[in-house]
Amino acid sequence: MYYSNCLWIVFILHSFVLGIDSNDFNIHGTTSQGWEFVRDLFKDNFVQERDLGASMAIYYQGQPVVDLWGGWFDQSRTKPYDHNTLQYVFSTSKGLVAIAVALCVQRGLLDYSALVKTYWPEYGQNGKENTTVADILSHRAGLPLDDYPMERILNWTAMVHTLEQREPQWPPGTAHGYHPLTYGWLAGELVRRVDPKNRTFGQWVRDEITNPLQIEFYIGLPLEQEYRVSPIETVLNNVDTNDANEIFESNPFNDHRVQRAEIPAANGIANARSIALLYASLIGDLDHGKRKQLLSENMLKRAIKSNTPDNEIDITLGVHTKFGMGFLLYDDMITSLGSNVFGHSGLGGSVGLAAPAKNFSFSYVINRMNIDQQIKIDSRYKTMLDKIGSKLDDRRAF
């Protein structure tokens, strides 16, 4: 943890610390000069009761400039949401999966244009013979349905065998439809198939991404870290109450078995500072060049290039979505941050994203989940991003 600790110590020493001893909504943390306005916007989400507990972080030009957290660990409001809290981030973890595959492509182990059966022969059956790696990464594989019993979802091998036998709902590559859970096993199994060390996907991520970067982003939470995970609170907005109550009756997201399992599309557990650093590592060097960019410029361009035809409707969600190689592309949703904004949001509001044109990365992580928020830009940080984008255009602000 040496690098991470040193980086944040330097950040704290060179930042203007605003109200870190304040009990006002338990908001603590640091903001660099020129970024103080972000704390006020963060606080407003608690004032308006949009958030129960949350953290957010920003990197700009390879340096951490915002690291804030606040609110409560759970609904009892007896324990603060603090610097040590970890959080379920749902589909925000799909971005981590996309990075894992991109690293395999960069190392020559995978090819986006290659057929999946080249690496995973058992997959090439029942109408899936011509599926490419790119089809899986851009939600064009035709296997979006996730109606599986919990015991199977918790078993990687069982899910892989199930997907091998399934027939696609549409000819792979001819349309796209969001794969809420199956994306993770499909892409994750490709990584496993080309791993010479035969690791689980979660272990691969720890060894190749999170440990080298000294961040916390777990696919398969270690037992000793469970006490740090803030439970999810569900808020019902624009959702039929009976349907929502049925979906969340047992609240499986707070089940320790689910947290320990490897469900890469949906059960990532992290904090905002880790996710912001992860995306910062994709778009430039960190810490004044001491840490080199994780993906090459050419590799990043390939990974964030759209593989969705213009105006094609997402079959699963029934709206326009646009995907690169696993990344959700935000150009049409976030116009204030320049071109090629990419990342991934999670059910309920968490997000991680990067804006290469601004050398900017951002993460917002929450425990109060608005389940009507799919992959839209959550209102809790939409205003933030718009104001940040305006200020980034005025370099005198920093």
UniProtKB/TrEMBL annotation:
Residues 1-22 form the signal peptide. Residues 45-370 form the Beta-lactamase-related domain. Gene3D superfamilies: DD-peptidase/beta-lactamase superfamily. It comes from the Eukaryota. Keywords: Signal. Pfam families: Beta-lactamase (PF00144). This is Beta-lactamase-related domain-containing protein. It comes from Rotaria magnacalcarata.
